[in-house]
Structure formats: C-alpha cells, structure tokens
C-alpha cells in the first residue's frame, strides 16, 4: 500500500501494528550504491546488477521505502550510519548503535 498521508498506517497495515524501537539507516550516495552493486555483480552472477536495473531499483526505493524512513525520522527513531565508508568503519558505528539501543 502506498503512502497517501503523513501516517505510517497508510503505508502498510503491518507498519501500524509494529512497535518500532529504532530504524537503522545505512546512508550512502546513489552512485556509491550502484558502484558496489556493479562490483558485486561481477562475482555473483546476478543479471539484475546492471546500471539500468539499479537505477530503477533506486527510484522504487525513493518512491516506496524512503517515505517510511522519513516518517520514522520525524518520530526521532532513525539511527543513520554513513555507509559510504569501508565495512570496518560502518561495523563500528552499527555496533555502537546496537549497544546503545539494543
């Protein structure tokens, strides 16, 4: 179900029933995301790891998922991690958040 107002319950009935303590949001630019998926595609054999498919997936994310994150952000429930960094740095931030929120 698509978001038609400022309420999470309009996004999905399940969303309104869930008690969300926090949302862990891995933030990086679209280009970083695409580059990483293209690199993954070299070894994974995934045929959908191509630039055109990835750009479509990002548009779907922006239309369908990002509004949910924005709504949780308005409620102060989003913990953002800079995911443009290397995996070890990201892991440290995630561990700190989980230890604090967990």
Structure report:
Keywords: Kinase, Nucleotide-binding, Transferase. Belongs to the adenylate kinase family. It comes from Muraenolepis orangiensis (Patagonian moray cod). This is Nucleoside-diphosphate kinase. The structure is a single chain. With 102 residues, this protein is mainly α. It has a single domain, classed as Rossmann fold (3-Layer(aba) Sandwich), CATH 3.40.50. Helices cover 58% and strands 10% of the residues. Helix 2 (30-44) crosses helix 3 (51-74). The chain is globular. The protein starts with 12 loop residues before the first helix and ends with a helix.
Which structural traits does this protein have?
102 residues; mainly alpha; two-stranded parallel ribbon; 4 helices; disordered N terminus
> Unreliable runs, pLDDT <50, ≥5 residues?
1-5
Number of domains: 1
CATH superfamily heading: P-loop containing nucleotide triphosphate hydrolases
Q: How many helices? A: 4
Strand content: 5-15%
Q: What is the terminal separation in angstroms?
A: 30 Å
How many β-strand runs? 2
The radius of gyration is 16 Å
| Main sheet strand line-up | 1-2
> Overall pLDDT, averaged?
87
Largest sheet: 2 strands, parallel
């Amino acid at each position: 179900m698509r978001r038609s107002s400022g309420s999470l319950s309009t996004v999905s009935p399940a969303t309104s029933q869930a008690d969300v303590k926090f949302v862990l949001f891995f933030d990086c630019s679209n280009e970083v995301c695409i580059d990483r998926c293209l690199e993954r595609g070299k070894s994974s054999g995934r045929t959908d790891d191509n630039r055109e498919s990835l750009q479509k997936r990002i548009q779907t994310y922006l239309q369908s998922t990002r509004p949910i994150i924005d709504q949780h952000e308005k409620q102060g429930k989003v913990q953002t991690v800079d995911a443009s960094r290397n995996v070890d740095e990201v892991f440290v931030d995630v561990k700190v958040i989980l230890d604090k929120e967990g």
